[in-house]
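## tool: complex_structure
## caller: assistant
## args:
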Amino acid sequence: MCTFAADLENNKSPIMQKIVRFLLVLALITPVAAFASGGHGDDHGEKKEKTKEEKRAENKEYVKHHTNDSHDFGLFTIEGEKGEEDSHVGFPLPVILWEDGLHIFMSSKFHHGHEVVESNGKYFVLDYHDGKIYNADEHGNILKKEVDGEEVKLAPLDFSITKNVLVTILMAVLLFFLFRGIAKSYKTGLAPTGAAKFFEPIIVFIRDEIAIPNIGEGSHKKYMPYLLTVFFFIWFLNLAGMTPLGINVTGNIAVTCALAIMTFVITNATAKKNYWLHIFWMPGVPIPMKILLMPIEIIGVFVKPFALMIRLYANMLAGHIVLGSLIAVVFFFDAFLAKTAFVGLTFFLNIIELLVALLQAYIFTMLTALYFGAAAEEAHH
Amino acid sequence: MDKLLDQFSIGLFFWQTVLFLALLFLLRKFAWKPILNSVNEREQKISDSLELAEKTKAEMESLKASNENLLKEARAERDAMIKDAKETASKMINDAKDKAKEEGNKMLAAAQDSINAEKAAAIAELKTQVAAFSIEIAEKVVRGELSSADKQKALADKLAEDINMN
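## result:
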């Protein structure tokens, strides 16, 4: 397959090249290159043979674009012929904005950042590069305001159903029906059947290897629903990121932040006396040490969920960037051998990423259980 | 850090929180509780069953042992009965033998007695017969001796002589 693809690639037939590029990506089950968007309307017009620098910049743009959230669900882009614009294949998503009132319209109105949208007397533009919506005047100039001598772009509150939100909804629905189905399957008999055969050992693993050793038998029960939900939620979203649809939910800071804050809230809301005692008045150490440890422990309360947030975000984002870059490298090199080698390397890293998807879900759940364990611990001195 | 904050989308954060919490509550009610309950129930059942099996096994073991004992007892009883029967039989035989012997002896003694009595009677009869015969003979002799006067006189002389001599 790889050899075949690379051979065709050398033929330089533009249509074939595009098809092969898409097939290659699908075959690798990788997320990035499917979002191949050529120029973003800035450089349409004369299209020459691209220089290395241009190609490099373009590849960088693909990768960056893929890792960001988006207001439309792009599947792939067909590069325009000379003098034509690129055409994007995908579907639009609803935009929900709050700017002195509610503004709801479909993202297709932006035409991928080319058009100004008017809604209830307000004007909005979509910046295709950072994927954000800004306030603008009727000519499409972004409104700015001075803050501390710096110009800041004005943006409305954006509650749009973006690609990440849509994927999260789909995954939540999938998870709900999957596990409700599993729960129902136990009504016919106590032995697991179908999907339960696969998922039950994982559920039991989370209970026996994560929850009970870290939280303790008995008090682990009230934390189980959260641990299970967070594990499968992260795992499934990580796996969704492995599809060639250009999804990167768990590699988004807002998503990991939401998860980490929930862990933080649950930890502190359910914490027993012993937990607070260990923070504010550490038992078993001299009084000067107690005073010294107090600020450190207080900082620790916030650092723990912060680390959770950054760990998941950085791991998933880095994985996507590395994979995207490697796929870009496949297209960057002209030499057949180099292409083949990088296809192999990309495939190998893909397998690793598949493992990382599970591993990160496990680590997040494990550490969450560890924090819950500290909160639920009773005094034992 | 600036880039991180720049990338942070309030909308995405909001939706994420809402969706996750909704999923958490739905799954807790419709999935995790029933699944964990079923798993617990099954584990309980399995451990109960294992315990029961162990118990049954022990019971079987004891039952087997008691069966063995019962068998042993039965065997011993049978042996004892056989022995008893044998003893009784041999005793009966011996008793019968003794009795028979005794009876025989008794009969023998009775026969002897009757033989002796018969013998004595016979002897007495014989003695009577012999006396009778002797008297008859003596009568006959005496009659011959006294049949003539000479003879009577000779006899008287002889007798007188016998008496004289004395």
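## assistant note: Strands of chain A lie at 72-78, 87-92, 94-98, 102-106, 117-119, 122-127, 132-136, 144-147, 150-153, 157-158. The first strand of chain A starts at residue 72 and ends at 78. Handing back to user.
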